[in-house]
Each structure stands twice: as C-alpha cells, then as structure tokens.
Amino acid sequence: MAERTPPERNRYVDFLRAISICAVVFGHWLMATAYRTEQGLEIGNVLAIQPPTQWLTWAVQVMPIFFMVGGFANSISWSSSLAKGRSYPEWLGSRMQRLVGPMVPLILFWGAVSAIALNFGESVRVIRMGTRMALIPLWFLSVYVLVVALTPVSYRLWKRFGVWSLAGMAAAAIGVDLLVFAAGLSVFGWLNYLFIWLTVHQIGFAWRDRVLQGVGGRLAVAVLGLSALLWMTQLGPYPLALVSVPGEAISNSSPPKLPLLALALFHGGLLLAIEKPVRRWLEGRKPWAATILVNGMIMTGYLWHLTPAVLLLGIGHWTGWGFQTPPGTADWWAVRAIWIPCLVIALLPFLTIFNRFERPARGAARVLSRRRLVTGAVLVTAGLGYLAFDGVHLLGWSDIRSWAIVLPLAGAWVAGAWPRLATR
C-alpha cells in the first residue's frame, strides 16, 4: 500500500490523524486512576489528585488537530464528489458507513456486558461508572457525525466568504462563552459543541486551500494561540486543564470553550510550521507504512481503547486483586511503565476481532434519501452523546436512559450504516 500511494497525496494529514489518536489513547490510559479503599475500588483521575499534571493536557488534548485534519480530508472528499457529479446522499452515505459502522459492535458489546453484570447482581452504580468510562470516546463521534453532515454547508460558506466564514463561526463561539460567563446562561454553552468544532473544521479548509503559507506566518499563528491560551487560563475565568477534571465547576471541554479554539491555533500553527520536513520524511517507505498501518485501524483503536482498561478494573473489583498503590505517588508513576504496555497487549485482541468493521463491504451500497440520512445522523448524535456522558443504564425499557443504547443503533440502521463486513 505504501508503494502504491499516489505522489499528490498529502501524507502529513494521515500522519497527524494517526499521531493525534495515539496521543488521545495514551492520555486516557495515563490519567485514569484506580485505588482500593475500604469502600471498594475507587476510580479517579490523576489531574484531580495532582493538579500540576493538568499542564500535560496542553500536549495530549489533540482533538482540535483531529477536527482540523477532518476538515482537510472532508474538503477534498466533498469537492471531489461535486466534481464527479455525486449527490449529497451518495457522499454522506459512504461517510456514515465508515464512521458509524465501527461503533455498532462496541455498543452491542457493552450492552451485553451490562446486562450480564446486572443479572449477576452488580449494582447499577458500578455498571454506570464502568460503561461511562468505556464509552467516553463516543462523544467525539457524536459531534463529528454532525460536523460531517454539515460539511456541504460549511464548505459552501468557506468558498463564498473565505476566512470571514471562519471568523464568523469563531465570533459565534465567543458570543456563546459571553452568555455563559457574563450572563450566567450556562445552558447556551452546549451550542459550542457545534461552533467550536465547526470553526476548527474550517481551519482544515484553510489549510487545504493554502491560505497561510510560510513558516513565519504559521509560527505567528502558534504564538497567537499560545498567548490567548495563557491569558484565558491564567487571567481569565477558564481552568488550566483542557479536559474535564472531576470536582471542578468549569470544564474547558464539556461543553467546549474558547481555550480549545486557542489550542487549535497553537497546535495547528506549530504543526503546520514543520509540515514540509515531515512530509519529506514520510516519503520514506518505513515511516509511511507505519502511518498506513495505524490509520487502517484508527477508529477501532480509538473506540475500543478504554474497554480493556475497564475490563481489567472490573476483574480487580470482583476479585479484590491489585490496585493497592495510591495514585499520584512515585510508586504509582513507576507502575505506569507496566500498566500502559499491559493495556497495549490487552487491546490487541479487540483490534484483531473488530477491525474488520472499519472496512466496508465492497460494492455500491443503496443510495438513501437525504431525509433518511440526516435523521440517522441526528439519532446517532443524540444517542452517542448520552452514552458518552452518562454510560449505560439498564433500569427497564420504560426508562429514557435505557433507550440511549437503542438510539445510535437505530440511527445506524436508518442511515444505512449498519456494518457490512468486507469480503476478504
């Protein structure tokens, strides 16, 4: 595959996608803590236990890079679709299959595990805590599906207004945060799941159209982003951590706030400043082959990476084994050198089994109507969002929280994104 890559492909886009997902996986594995107390196994976060570690989130919070890369890739995909005369339903249907298909087995797996655990007498609280941790990755997919569905609109705005379309979305994000902090209307903060990530997605359009060339200009953007980030977190009302921290009243990521936009400028400007030398390096067979390998299982690895961690915690919870080291101590940090490689090994079977769902079956799929695809996308977004924030509740089908399992599965079926295995 590396040898068959066309010369015009921007390999740096694939490289950044692979690196960003690996950083997310490593960050989640590093930050999660478990410690056995008299009350049982307590799950926590090292960011809350050792506040200075919150600076690490400035490096491992790389979701802005993933959305920026998504904007670059989606602009190519959508413009190519327009050039070939393909319709919006054709384009969105293929995107939904690749995005939504891999999440179906994950939800079915944790629905089954939850039902079995409940049948064996496990408490709803423990099931909710475990599934909430395992399904955290779904929040990204929830938002990204909506951003992808809106790509034709955002791309049209970009082609008509250029950087002013980006500035308009950023202004909307600023307005939302003003409503949250100045007017106390926190409910409006959820709108920034759309405005913040659409703005970062537009930055990907700007990258693809080479709006900002030259190392100096890109470094200037990085300095601007870093300066804004420091001002907002050190002098403004925003917390230091760029991810949610248990116990903190304000989160920069849930819902997203302006520091994530500043981080996008900081990371984006810095990474684009080194684009040319890294692209030359990626022309080598080995680094490019490694990039292809990671990208070939990227969605599977991202969706499933917390599952082995939760299962190992579950074994510790039920057997009373392990997790005796207090989090944040020198011994705990030393154990990370064993814990993370163990999680890598534990993830391999899931990659082997479920990676096939990341490769759609060959052959043209039936083109569905625009209404059906958009309805499916909305159902997926709503269901995944709820599962990511509240975990699995099995309190009976009359309980609205139980239907959170059904919503994304129904959305996948409605949108024609139920996984069809690739024929080997």
Describe the secondary-structure layout.
Layout: H1 11-31, E1 32-37, E2 40-45, H2 46-49, H3 57-60, H4 63-83, H5 88-100, H6 103-119, H7 124-134, H8 138-149, H9 151-161, H10 163-181, H11 192-208, H12 215-234, H13 258-273, H14 275-281, H15 285-295, H16 298-304, H17 307-319, H18 330-354, H19 370-390, H20 403-414
Antiparallel strand pairs: 1-2
Helix pairs in contact: 1-4, 1-15, 4-11, 5-8, 5-19, 6-7, 6-20, 7-17, 7-19, 8-11, 8-19, 9-10, 10-11, 11-13, 12-13, 19-20
- The Rg value, from CA coordinates, equals 21 Å
Point out poorly predicted stretches.
none
What about the largest sheet?
2 strands, antiparallel
Mean pLDDT, rounded to whole units? Answer: 89
In one word, what is the shape?
A: globular
What is the string of SSEs from the N terminus onward? HEEHHHHHHHHHHHHHHHHHHH
User: Oligomer, anyone?
Assistant: single chain
State the domain count. Answer: 1
Binned strand content: under 5%
Going by helix content, strand content and strand pairing, the class is: mainly alpha
Helix content: 55-70%
